TrEMBL record:
Name by which UniProt lists this protein: Pyruvate kinase
Upper classification of the organism: Eukaryota, Viridiplantae, Streptophyta, Embryophyta, Tracheophyta
Residue intervals of the Pyruvate kinase C-terminal domain: 462-556
Reactions catalysed according to its record: pyruvate + ATP = phosphoenolpyruvate + ADP + H(+)
NCBIfam families the record matches: PRK05826.1, pyruv_kin
Gene Ontology CC: chloroplast stroma
Cofactor (UniProt): K(+); Mg(2+)
Ranges annotated as spanning the membrane: none
Length: 575
């Protein structure tokens, strides 16, 4: 077995003021350049650099750097770590204190779409045990009764679970353009002529209806029509007042109600349809945690939805799905208005050249991280596991890339909704994410995250709490009601777990989406010290920390708890 090298170093006395900027951090704290940074150096030049407020830090402990070669034969604890990396256990038995080797808990969260394969009580429990953090309901399929059943089951699980919480995400259908019903599937061959019409009820061997009245106006001669994201393609040859005549380029079997895209164009439909508003009201009534809004083209859509939620007194966060060509020029304003974004690569790759998708994925993740927003990478992550028990090696690499780029969550769609191996798919995603995270150097910050939180003293404390966690090898404990401080710490990506204690069930569920956050529900006492003691005891009893281990306890954020508005502090405590 190859030799494992463990490096331990603590910088000697830090007596000069330091800055949060990457320019002022020691070179050893920086990650090696990523593949993307080498391929796309021009993008990094355009990113702004942010300087953080200076703060004098004195380190009481110092030790020379040492490189200790070890192997599993030399130390049984290394073997335990290797088992953890293979996904054989989520919680380790090794302390994460200052002198111990690190333990690994998966930080990247997993979103599972619930469908016919997984909409039973037994399967939702098993998905949660396998690693699901967010349950997604796709409103393009099923009805309110079937989704109500899933919501009730997830809430039942959350009520029974002592140390886990599953968030609920409602994904709107959006303005999809679909073909009409056919009596039986039609086989289209290259070179064949085929017609789409806005006349209702047409379904013959050479013509089918489209559910969008402006379809004829939106397409032009020479446009490429894609069926189901590119499974079939047709080029527009001519059009009349109510029909579009095409020639088949890539053939296949055309079934009823197939999704249609025009390469490089978006339909001139409202992002939130009447059906979507009905579904949104359904979500408000059921107090879901997140909306994933389809085909968002501009920030106005997000403002409109947030104003509606405010009028309903609904505490639901809005995730925008970036999947249309029209959304790309407005990326910054859309993401600024939202609470996070989903890289919906299916429709994005249909409306734009597919070679642009990985570049856009990296850019969207970077924008979200710099703005302090959640980001989810979705579509085709383990597509082959819908029918096969093992993934392709390319799919494994796809998961690893999303994790390395800094995504908060990765998503399964058909794999868990109607696939044959939903539990295996979740376990593969868990294992690959866990293994990838173990190779990532902690503490690399987005280049301008300080811009978002610069008006909050909490931002500086989150930065220094992260530096402390990375230097001492500790986990971080935070107490929150709104979730603000836990989310802020998450975007700084400390190397240790963020244990976020809250006395609000809704906050606990929402935090389940954020990278590195382990949300724990606990009633707070009026006395701060009593609450701190109970929290550390709970962590120790559940095996999340060990006696003698050090943790960083942060008291900061928008809403003061056991402190004055002007007082913020970080403590290092021994369990």
């Amino acid at each position: 077995m190859s030799q494992v090298v463990a490096t331990r170093s603590i910088h000697s006395s830090l007596t000069r003021p330091t800055s949060g900027s990457a320019l002022h951090r020691p070179p050893t704290s920086l990650k090696p350049p990523t593949f993307a940074s080498k391929v796309l150096p021009q993008q990094s030049k355009n990113r702004c650099k942010v300087r953080y407020p200076s703060c004098r830090v004195n380190a009481r402990k110092s030790a020379p750097a040492e490189v200790v070669p070890v192997s599993p034969a030399d130390d049984s604890k290394i073997e335990e770590e290797l088992q953890q990396l293979r996904g054989m256990q989520q919680l380790g038995d090794i302390a994460v204190g200052m002198w111990s080797k690190p333990t690994f808990r998966r930080k990247t969260k997993i979103v599972c779409t619930i469908g016919p394969s997984t909409n039973t009580r037994e399967m939702i429990w098993k998905l949660a045990e396998a690693g699901m953090n967010v349950a997604r309901m796709n409103m393009s399929h099923g009805d309110h009764a079937s989704h109500q059943k899933v919501i009730d089951l997830v809430k039942e699980y959350n009520a029974q679970s002592k140390d886990n919480a599953i968030a609920i995400m409602l994904d709107t259908k959006g303005p999809e353009v679909r073909s009409g019903d056919l009596p039986q599937p039609i086989v289209l061959t290259p070179g064949q002529e085929f017609t789409f019409t806005i006349r209702r009820g047409v379904g013959t061997a050479d013509c089918v209806s489209v559910n969008y009245d402006d379809f004829v106006n939106d397409v032009e001669v020479g446009d490429m029509l894609l069926v189901d994201g590119g499974m079939m393609s047709l080029v527009v040859k001519s059009k009349t007042e109510d029909s579009v005549k095409c020639e088949v380029v890539d053939g296949g079997e055309l079934k009823s109600r197939r999704h249609l895209n025009v390469r490089g164009k978006s339909a001139t439909l409202p992002s939130i349809t009447e059906k979507d508003w009905d579904d949104i009201k359904f979500g408000v009534d059921n107090k879901v945690d997140f909306y994933a809004v389809s085909f968002v083209k501009d920030a106005q859509v997000v403002h409109e939805l947030k104003n509606y939620l405010k009028s309903c007194d609904a505490d639901i966060h809005v995730i925008v799905k970036i999947e249309s060509a029209d959304s790309i020029p407005n990326l910054h304003s859309i993401i600024t208005a939202s609470d996070g974004a989903m890289v919906a690569r299916g429709d994005l790759g249909a409306e734009l050249p597919i070679e642009e998708v990985p570049l856009l994925q990296e850019e969207i993740i970077s924008i979200c991280r710099s703005m302090g927003k959640a980001v989810i990478v979705a579509t085709n992550m383990l597509e082959s596991m819908i029918v096969h028990p093992t993934p392709t090696r390319a799919e494994v690499s796809d998961i690893a890339i999303a994790v390395r780029e800094g995504s908060d969550a990765i998503m399964l769609s058909g794999e868990t909704a109607h696939g044959k191996f939903p539990l295996k798919a979740v376990k593969v995603m868990h294992t690959v994410a866990l293994r990838t995270e173990a190779t990532i150097t902690g503490g690399q910050l987005p280049p301008n995250i300080g811009n978002v939180f610069k008006n909050h003293t909490s931002e500086m404390f989150a930065y220094h709490a992260t530096m402390m966690s990375n230097t001492l090898g500790t986990s971080t404990v935070v107490f929150t009601r709104s979730g603000f401080m836990a989310i802020l710490l998450s975007h700084y990506r400390p190397s240790g777990t963020i244990f976020a204690f809250t006395d609000q069930k809704r906050t606990q569920q929402r935090l389940a989406l954020y990278q590195g956050v382990c949300p724990i529900y606990m009633k707070f006492s009026e006395d701060a010290e009593e609450t701190f003691t109970r929290a550390l005891d709970l962590l120790q009893k559940q095996g999340m920390v060990k006696a003698g281990e050090e943790v960083a306890l942060v008291q900061s954020g928008k809403q003061p708890i056991w402190r004055s508005q002007s007082t913020h502090n970080i403590q290092v405590r021994t369990v």
